[in-house]
Write a structure and sequence with these properties.
Layout (H helix, E strand, L loop, with lengths): L2 E3 L1 E2 L2 E2 L26 E5 L5 E5 L6 E2 L2 E2 H8 L4 E3 L7 E3 L7 E2 L3 E3 L7 E3 L5 E2 L2 E3 L7 E3 L5 E2 L2 E3 L18 E3 L7 E3 L4 E3 L2 E3 L7 E3 L2 E5 L1 E3 L7 E3 L5 E2 L3 E2 L2 H4 L5 E3 L5 E2 L3 E2 L7 E3 L5 E2 L3 E2 L8 E3 L5 E2 L3 E2 L7 E3 L5 E2 L3 E2 L11 E3 L5 E2 L3 E2 L19 E2 L7 E3 L9 E2 L5 E3 L13
Parallel strand pairs: 1-4, 11-14, 12-15, 13-16, 14-17, 17-18, 18-21, 19-22, 20-23, 21-24, 23-26, 25-28, 26-29, 27-30, 29-32, 30-33, 31-34, 32-35, 33-36, 35-38, 36-39, 37-40, 38-41, 39-42, 42-43, 43-45, 44-46
Antiparallel strand pairs: 2-3, 4-5, 6-7, 8-9, 10-11
The structure holds 2-acetamido-2-deoxy-beta-D-glucopyranose (6 copies).
Length: about 425
């Protein structure tokens, strides 16, 4: 058996066979060592590369029996090329695809489009970053073992087709206005969407992510669909997103490993839904029209809670048991409207509680036994009972407030005592 090279459409297609074990020695052009293979690589008039084989032999490319695939589909658009050794040509025949078995590396090739032809899956990663892609056709690919890097291209739309699993997705620096993750299900690793023009996103069947980068987009609202767990931050603060967010739907999320940063937006209400724990900070400061916050099922906040410069009149910490940093509900410009605060189940605040410049007439510290300092100055309080509160810092109040069980008083200029 032998390989023939066929000249078709006046173009010579160069063939080198990469055999099963992909042994070091690459045969000369248009020749094969295999005894049982007869195949022809043809460049069809439409520009696609095909392997034609009439034999029962096998040609393996990255573990795939391409001849069998050819027989099944008639058009497995993948072929072997001579240079550099062990790199094959796949899909777009006019370009050399560097495919060394560890993944597809086709970055910085000025590609305007890319098609995967009839490749059924990639066990490793796909790197098409830094091209000029306006379209990509994943066609039949169902599984990508590694990440898909399409960053720094010109994509305005993306269709993940039949892909159901992938370990990371990089779409940063494209021209996307919307993203739909289609059939991708389960864990999607790191998703980077930064520097696009996104206004909508459909996470489809994705249930967890290690991180999501949203910066420099145009979201006015966002929902997280079926996502249950976010390993890192949810960061959509104004300077990062570039547009004021008016609504957020945490949907099915039960855990956020990092921060939830939504400061300087135009949110009027926030419902944390099913979120039970937040590893870092919760920061909703400078949402000037925010009138309601429902902490839902959150029991632990690893960092601080910042609700400064909002329009909240009351805050109820719901089921929160501990806060790793400060609780800040003061107003930075004019007097805040806060008239009631309910610490609920909080027993421990590993920072300070800052409620100054509000309209509080009374404060009940509830079950808090541990806090650094509490600052209540510039509130119309008449009395404060420190009961079981254990301060490692001090309490700051205005002159004339009657104090009970309060032993550690601040001496700074804001504090009368
Ligand atoms: C490839 O195979 C197809 C189907 O067997 C045939 O129609 C076509 O002519 C072949 N092309 C070449 C260049 O042999
Ligand atoms: C690629 O992954 C598929 C599905 O997980 C597996 O069946 C196949 O053996 C893998 N192929 C190689 C060459 O690793
Ligand atoms: C998905 O695969 C099926 C065949 O399994 C094919 O008919 C369909 O066109 C593919 N979808 C896309 C978007 O390529
Ligand atoms: C996402 O992409 C941006 C811009 O390229 C980069 O600065 C950021 O580090 C990336 N995020 C992650 C988590 O890799
Ligand atoms: C939560 O996930 C279910 C499917 O598991 C979906 O039907 C529902 O719409 C999701 N909730 C939200 C708020 O997106
Ligand atoms: C929180 O406090 C309420 C009463 O204010 C109580 O019914 C509930 O069991 C407490 N939850 C936890 C987790 O301690």
């Amino acid at each position: 058996m032998q390989w023939r090279c066929s000249k078709n459409a006046a173009l010579v297609v160069v063939v080198v066979v990469m055999m099963m074990a992909m042994v070091a020695a690459i045969p000369p052009l248009c020749m094969a060592q295999a005894d049982d293979i007869e195949g022809v690589v043809v460049l069809e008039d439409d520009g696609s590369l095909h392997i034609n084989s009439s034999s029962v032999g096998k040609v393996y490319i990255d573990g795939e029996d391409v001849v069998a695939e050819l027989q099944a589909t008639r058009k497995f658009i993948a072929a072997l090329t001579s240079t550099p050794a062990q790199h094959i040509q796949l899909a777009n025949p006019e370009v050399t695809v560097l495919f060394d078995g560890s993944g597809l590396v086709m970055s910085d090739k000025k590609l305007a489009s890319f098609s995967f032809g009839f490749v059924p899956f990639f066990n490793n990663s796909i790197n098409l970053a830094n091209n000029q892609l306006t379209s990509i056709d994943f066609n039949q690919i169902t599984h990508v073992g590694g990440g898909i890097d399409l960053s720094h291209n010109h994509l305005t739309v993306i269709d993940f087709g039949n892909i159901t699993s992938v370990s990371s997705i990089y779409l940063n620096y494209n021209d996307l206005t919307s993203v739909n993750f289609g059939q991708i299900a389960g864990d999607a690793g790191d998703i980077n969407l930064s520097h696009n023009d996104l206004t909508t996103i459909d996470f489809g069947h994705i249930t967890s992510v290690r991180s999501i980068s949203f910066d420099s987009n145009k979201f006015t609202s966002i929902g997280f669909g079926q996502i249950i767990s976010v390993g890192g931050d949810i960061d959509l603060h104004y300077d990062y997103n570039n547009v004021h967010l008016t609504s957020v739907d945490f949907g099915n999320i039960t855990r956020v490993g990092g921060d939830i940063l939504l400061f300087t937006n135009d949110l009027t209400s926030v419902d944390f839904g099913k979120i039970a724990s937040v590893g870092g900070d919760i920061d909703f400061r400078n949402n000037y029209h925010l009138t309601s916050v429902d902490f839902g099922q959150i029991t632990n906040v690893g960092g601080k809670i910042r609700l400064t410069s909002t329009d909240l009149t009351s805050v109820d910490f719901g089921q929160i048991l501990s806060v790793g940093g400060d609780i800040e509900v003061y107003h930075t410009y004019t007097s805040n409207n806060l008239i009631s605060i309910d610490f609920g189940n909080i027993t421990r605040v590993d920072g300070s509680i800052k409620l100054y410049d509000n309209d509080l007439t009374s404060v009940d510290f509830g079950q808090i036994t541990h806090v650094i300092s509490i600052d209540l100055h510039n509130n119309p309080l008449t009395s404060v009972d420190c009961a079981n509160v254990g301060f490692s810092g001090c309490l700051c109040v205005d002159a004339g407030v009657t104090l009970t069980n309060c032993r550690r008083l601040c001496t700074s200029s804001n504090c009368a005592h």
